[in-house]
Fold:
Amino acid sequence: MTTLDRLGAEKYILLTTFRKDGRAVPTPVWAVRDGDALAVWSAADAGKVKRIRRSGDVTVAPCDVRGRPHGEAVAAHATLCDAAGTRRVRELIKQKYRLVGRLSLLGSRLRRGESGTVGIRVVLTDRPSTDA
Structure:
């Protein structure tokens, strides 16, 4: 089983983005396998989205719901999806997380509207992680 397979099978992953000054900002998120990448879904105005827009350098690690990692962090590169890509991520979330995923997506759409969330594609890189 590859690292991508293992992370895609996790219920939560710890997505760590980096501020301009290099400080790490870890966030536990749902993630799904999307071909050769992981896909994550987030509010469009979230801090992690702003940091990814500035620099796509991230790390990912398996974690629990509270963000406590239970595996090694892996270096990756994140990019924001367009509207069609975001719809695809929503569908993948619905498939993996079933009823809870559907309810979360519905609640988010009611609160934020269709454009209030964005899909994020995370491609694992070969370089070693600098996040401990």
